[in-house]
C-alpha cells in the first residue's frame, strides 16, 4: 500500500533521503542543543525556568531554532527548485505562524491572558513552534496536501516525514499532559504557567523522538527480513 | 446478539428499575453517612455535679424540684461555684469575621475597620474586654452555628439542608437550662431563634433574613426595642441578633462601602449596652455579662458556608469579665472554638453543661474565680465530657472503677502514679483524666493541711485538666463521624447494582445501533475513534480525580480543560476530512465557524469566574467588569438579553415552517424578553424589593411557564404539513418545542442570575446552537458522543456560572426574586434552578437535538422501513439521549459515593468531600428531572403525531 502511494507522489524520490541512523544523528544534535540551551541559561545567565521563565524560554528557542532550521532545510522537498535559503526563509515564516497557532491553542485550553503572562506565552509558543511547525515548514513548504496527509490523516511516507510527525505530536501531547499538575494545591513554583507545560512539551518531544526511532528501527528490521 | 431483541418497553422498565434502585441506595447511604441524631438523649440535671462513676441513683429528690428557684439554688449549692453574674446579654452579629475586630496574626485590624469601632477597641485596649477567634465548624451557615453555640455539639452535616426549614432544637442546650432555672429571656433579631426555641422567650421581635438586599431596616427593627429593654429589669437573658452585617457582605463583599458604617452602628450599640446596662447596675448585687459573638465569618465576596479561614473565623468577645488583662495583644490574640461558648456560659451562670457538649471552658474566662472554683469548673466540664465518652466507648474496653476512687486513691487495677499517657486513644483519655483527678485530689488534701506548695500543685492540676479537656474534646468531635456499616454497605451495593444495570442497558442499545449488519464492515478503528476514546478517558479521569481533595476543590479546571480539548479534537477531525480540492464550500466554513465559536465561547466562559478555592484571587472577567463600574455590567446584561431574544427569534423562524403556533410562540417569547428587559432596567438597582418588581417577575414566571408548557402540549396537535414524512414532521415539532424550552430557560436565568452571569448564559446558548449546527451538518460523530459532549459542556457551564464545590457559592439572593412571602419550597426551587442553570439548559437542549436529528436523517435511516413500530423508533431515537446522561451520572455518583466512603476519616471530609457530595446528589436530581422532561416531551409528541396521522389516513380513506 505504501509503495503504491510512493509511486503516486513522484516528488518524494527527488528529495534527499535519510537513513535511520541519520534520523538518530538529527535527534541527537537537536537534543544536544536543547541541553546546551539549558546549560547557557544556567551558567551564563544563572537563571532557570522557574526563576525567569521568559528569559529561559527565549534563549531556548533562539538557540534551538537555527539548528533545527539548518538541519531540516537539508531535507527540503524538491531541492532543485527550492534553494537552501528559501527553505530557511520559509521556516522563519513557519516559526511565526506556528507560534500563533500554538499560542491560540494554549489560550483556548485555558492559558492565562494578561499582561504579566503575555511574554511567557509568546516565548513558550515560539519554542513549541520550533518543536512542531518549523521543521515541517523547512521540509514541506506550503504544500497543503502534504501537510494534510501528514498531520491530519497521520499518514507519513518515508523517514523524514515520520521525523516531522512523531516528535511534533509528542511535544503537543506532552504539553497537554504537562498542564495537569497546574490546578493542584501543592504550592510548588513550577506549577505556574508555562513551566510545567514546558517541561511536559520537552519531555514529549524527546519521547516522540525515541518512539519514532524505535518504530523506524523495527520497520527497518522488518524490511530487512522481508 | 441476544440482547438486540430488547424492546422499548423492556428497555424502559430496566432503566426505571435501575433508577429507582439508585434512588433507594442513595437515600440509604445519605441517612447512614450523615449523622442526624445526637449521641445522648435527655437533659443534664443535678447528676452532672456528681462523679460519673458514682451511682446516680443517690439523687432521688430531683423530681420534686419543679420549682425553678429551688432548682437554681440546688445547682448553685452542688456546683460550689459562686455566680457573679445574674444577667447576660448575648449579642450575635451575623457574619462578622473576628478579623474585623481582633485583627489577624497578632496585627490589629485594618485602620478603617478599627476606626469604625472606637468603643469596642477602647474596651479591648483597657482590658475591659477579651476577644477570641472562635473557630466555627463547617457548614458555616447560621442555623447550625446557632445550634452549636447553644448546645456545644457539632451538629450533623445535613443541618444545611434544613437551614431554610428551621425546626425546634430538642437537644439539651444552654437556653433550655436557663429556662429551667426560671430565667426570663428576651430575643430581638433573626427569627431563626424563635423557630429553634418556640415558646422560650418572654418577649421577642423576630426579623426575617428574607430580604438579603435590605441592610438597614433589619437592624433598625432590632435596635428600636433596645432602650426599653435596657431600662427594664425583668429579664435575665437578652439576645440580640443583628443580620445587617451579613446582608452587607452578601451584597457587597468584605470591602463593601457600607461595611464601616455598619460596624460603627454595631459599635454604638455596644457602647449603649455597656454604659447603660453594665455601668449603671454595677452597684447592685449581681452583674451583667455582655458577650458579642458572630455565628460565622465571610469570604472576600461576602459568602459563607465553607470551611476556609475567612468563613470559620468567628468572634467571641466577653465584656465585663473583670479579668486582669492589661495589654491589647493579650486581649485579642486568643483562640477558642465556637462550641466552647456553651460550657463557659453554663459554668459562669451555674447551670449544668448540656449533655452533648464537646466544647471546653474558654480559658481566660475563669480568672475572676477563686482557685478551688476554677478547678471545680474544670472538673465539672471533665465529668460531662467523660459521660459523653462513656456512652461511646464499649464498656469492655473501659475499666470498672468505683465512685470517687480517683480522689480517694482506692481504684482497683489502676496505679495511681502520675504517668505519661500512651496507648490507644480511649486508654489515653482515661489516663489523662485519672492524672487530672489525682492532681486535683492532691491539691485538695494539701490545701487543707499546708499552704506552702499549693500554687505549684494548683497549676499542675489546672494543666492536667486542660490537657484532658482538649484531648477529649478533639476525640469527641472526631467521633461524630462514626458510621453504621450496614446501611452504608447496603446503599453502596444498591448503587453499584443500579450502575451495572444502567451500563448493561446502554451497552445493549449500543450494540444494537452500531452492530447492525450493514454497519458491520466498519473496522475496530472506526468503531472506537479518537473522540470516543477521549470521552471514555475523560470519564475515567473524572472518577480518579474525585479522590483528591484539591482536585475536588478545583474541579472546574478539569471540565474546562477537557471540554476545550474535545472541541480541539473536533477541529482536528474537521481538518482531517477537509479536502482542498473540493474548494471552500459553505458547509465546511459553517463547521469551522461553529467549532471556533465553541472554542472562543468556551474560553470566555472559563475566564468569566475564577472559581474553586485556591485561586479565587486571580483576575477574571467578572472582577474586571465589576471594577470597571456597574455601568459595564448593566450594558453586558442588556446586550445579552437582547441577543438572547434575537437568537431565540432567529432559531424559531429558521425552522422554515410558517405555522401560527410559531408566531404565537415568538410573540410570547418576545413579550417575556421585553418584560425581563424592563425588570432589569428598572428594578434591579433598587436594593429593596418593591411591589412593582415582584408583580413583573411573577408575570414573567407565568408567561414563561405558559409558553414552554403550552408549546410542548399544543404544538404536536398543530402539525398540518401533509407532504412531509412522519419523522420529519415529528422532528420539526420537537425542534420547535426544544427551542421553546431552552429559550424560556435562558430568559428565566437572565432574570434570576446575578447581573454578571448574563454574559455566560448567552455564551451557553451560543454553544448549544453551535453544537446543534455541527451535528446537523453531516458531522461524523456518533450520537452518543455528541450527547455526552452536551452533558460535559453543561457541567463546564455550571462552573462557568461561578459555582464551585463549596456551599458558599450558592446564590441565595436570587432565590427570593418575585416571591412576596417566605416560602421554603419556592425559594428552594428557585435556588436549585439558579445553581443548576447550565446542566438543565443542556439537558433541555436534548429535545432540540432529537428534533434536529430527526429532521436531518428522516429520509435516510428508519423511514425506509415502514413496518418499524413506534416503540422501535422511540427506542432508537430516545434511547441514547435518556440513557447517556443517566449512565454518566450513575457512574459519577457511584464512584463518588465509594470515594466518600473511603475518605470518611480524611481531614477534609466535612469541608471538601461532603459539600461535593451534596452537589453530586443535586446533579443527580437535576439529571432525573431533565431526562424525565425530555422523555415525556418526545414520547408525547410521537404519540400525538401518530394519532393525528392515523386519523388523517382514516379520514382520507373514508
Automatic annotation (TrEMBL), chain A:
What keyword terms does UniProt attach to this protein? Endoplasmic reticulum, GPI-anchor biosynthesis, Membrane, Transmembrane, Transmembrane helix
A single GO BP: GPI anchor biosynthetic process
Q: Which Pfam families match?
A: PIG-F (PF06699)
Provide the protein's localization.
Answer: Endoplasmic reticulum membrane
Q: Which pathway does this chain act in? A: Glycolipid biosynthesis; glycosylphosphatidylinositol-anchor biosynthesis
- The residues that cross the membrane are 12-38, 58-75, 87-110, 122-145, 157-180, 192-217
Which InterPro entries does the entry mention?
GPI_biosynthesis_protein_Pig-F
Q: How does it sit in the membrane?
A: Multi-pass membrane protein
Give the range the annotation lists for the signal sequence.
none
* Keyword Transmembrane recorded: yes
Q: Identify the GO cellular component terms for this protein.
A: endoplasmic reticulum membrane
Please identify the protein, giving its name as recorded: Phosphatidylinositol-glycan biosynthesis class F protein
Organism lineage? Eukaryota, Viridiplantae, Streptophyta, Embryophyta, Tracheophyta
From TrEMBL, chain B:
User: To which pathway does this protein belong?
Assistant: Glycolipid biosynthesis; glycosylphosphatidylinositol-anchor biosynthesis
> What is the membrane topology here?
Multi-pass membrane protein
In Pfam terms, one family for this protein is: Phosphodiest
Q: Which domain of life is it from?
A: Eukaryota
Q: Record's PANTHER family?
A: GPI ETHANOLAMINE PHOSPHATE TRANSFERASE 2, PHOSPHATIDYLINOSITOL GLYCAN-RELATED
Tell me which family the UniProt entry assigns to this protein.
Belongs to the PIGG/PIGN/PIGO family. PIGG subfamily.
Q: What is this protein's record name?
A: Alkaline-phosphatase-like family protein
Organism whose genome encodes this protein: Arabidopsis thaliana (Mouse-ear cress)
